[in-house]
From TrEMBL:
Protein name: SnoaL-like domain-containing protein
Origin species: Streptosporangium nondiastaticum
Residue ranges of every copy of the SnoaL-like domain listed in the record: 11-119
Pfam families, per the entry: SnoaL_2
Length: 151
């Protein structure tokens, strides 16, 4: 089990690549909070607790054909707070097997206590991801339809 914030960040990336909600959730404290400050379609803006992280990622990954192929260009920034690590990353993802790869970017700020994530701020470029995967027009259309339904 990783203990340092840097080791936990590396384990987080391994779990993401393995598409393992269990491995990912096991990195969290039982009462952890995972926040997504940037709005994204069909995703809550936070998960409360390890089991909500597990269920949320299982549902999200089960509902998409997007797959991460590689996480690269990871830049890790240390903090003056020994519990905090900041990881800026770029990943290569595909929409379907054999599809052209697309770049996905984000920034992850983890607070790790006793080897477990107690708080995560996950700044993923969701709109950039939709654009890179060729899904932005459909997303914008769906948002337009949703907005007109609310009028």
């Amino acid at each position: 089990m990783p203990t340092s914030p840097r080791d936990v960040l590396a384990a987080y990336h391994r779990a993401m690549l393995a598409w393992s909600a269990d491995d990912l959730a096991n990195l969290y404290a039982p009462d952890a909070v995972h926040e997504f400050p940037f709005l994204a379609p069909a995703r809550p803006n936070r998960y409360h607790g390890r089991e909500e992280v597990r269920a949320g990622y299982q549902a999200a990954w089960g509902a998409t054909s997007v797959r991460l192929q590689e996480i690269h260009d990871v830049v890790v920034f240390d903090s003056t707070d020994p519990e905090v690590v900041i990881g800026q990353w770029e990943a290569t993802a595909t929409l379907e097997p054999g599809a052209a790869p697309a770049a996905v970017t984000g920034l992850l700020i983890l607070r790790v206590r006793d080897g477990l994530i107690v708080h995560a701020l996950d700044y993923m470029d969701s709109l950039g991801t939709f654009q890179a995967l060729g899904r932005l027009p459909a997303l914008l259309d769906s948002l337009s339809i949703s907005a007109s339904d609310q009028s």
